[in-house]
Design goal:
With 127 residues, the chain is an alpha+beta fold. It is built from five helices and four strands, in the order E-H-E-E-E-H-H-H-H. It has a single domain (3-126), classed as Dimeric alpha+beta barrel (Alpha-Beta Plaits). The protein has helices spanning 15-23, 66-74, 77-86, 99-109, 119-126, and strands spanning 3-9, 32-34, 40-52, 55-64. A hairpin with a 5-residue loop joins strand 2 (32-34) and strand 3. It comes from Streptomyces gancidicus BKS 13-15.
């Protein structure tokens, strides 16, 4: 299963506040991702958030089309709520108030994948 990671440039010294924002995160309504035509386009399997100094990273494990996953996330109330709550702590503003702004920000914040290794990949190759 692929992973994607997006970064947030944040003000250092707000670890407690940022941890609280994510601790109260409202999960997405559905992990099933649909494309703009309503067809199945993937699944969000897991997310994790990491924080150190002035960098926050959200990691997403998913199946399917990453663009559809990002569009799905853009419309989720919990994601929109977190993005709004993060605004005071950002050193670089993120235009995430609209789906189009979220998508552009997602693409700009996406880290390049260097390597992905999973025991699941090995199990599938052995069979």
């Amino acid at each position: 299963m692929p992973f994607a990671a997006i970064t947030y440039d944040i003000k250092p010294g707000y670890e407690k506040e940022l941890t609280e924002i994510f601790a109260n995160f409202r999960r997405v309504r559905s992990s099933q991702v649909r494309d703009e035509a309503g067809e199945a386009a993937g699944t969000i399997l897991a997310t994790a958030v990491f924080l150190r100094d002035d960098t926050l990273v959200r990691v997403i494990e998913y199946t399917g089309d990453l663009e559809a996953v990002a569009r799905h996330m853009a419309s989720q109330p919990g994601v929109r709520e977190v993005e709004a709550k993060l605004k005071p702590y950002l050193t670089r503003p993120r235009d995430t108030d609209t789906v189009e702004g979220f998508m552009a920000t997602f693409r700009r914040s996406l880290l390049n994948t260097v390597a992905q290794i999973s025991v699941r990949d090995l199990q599938g190759a052995a069979g």
